[in-house]
Amino acid sequence: KAEEEEAARLKAEEEEATRLKAEEEEEAARREAEERARLAEEKEAIRILEEEAAKRAKRREEARAREEAAAAEAAEAERARRREEDRVRQEEEEKNKEENEQ
Description:
- The protein is an all-alpha fold.
- Helices cover about 100% and strands about 0% of the residues.
- The protein is rod-shaped.
């Protein structure tokens, strides 16, 4: 009878150890799944932030290109204004020269 009780006790301890091990494995699997989910969320957040940063960089580049185009246009307009002033001045000088020669 003592042997049966010892065998039953050992079997109960073995079952308890098996149950505890299964619970530990389930907990480890749960933690691992949570960690994978957290990493996936972080990866997605990083992707979104990088995408937004790329959009901001593109907008900055487009704004810079518009500023450069406007500056080039203004510079060309200034050159055209000066050419016109030079042309008018030259015409006046020629006119004055002709009047002086007469």
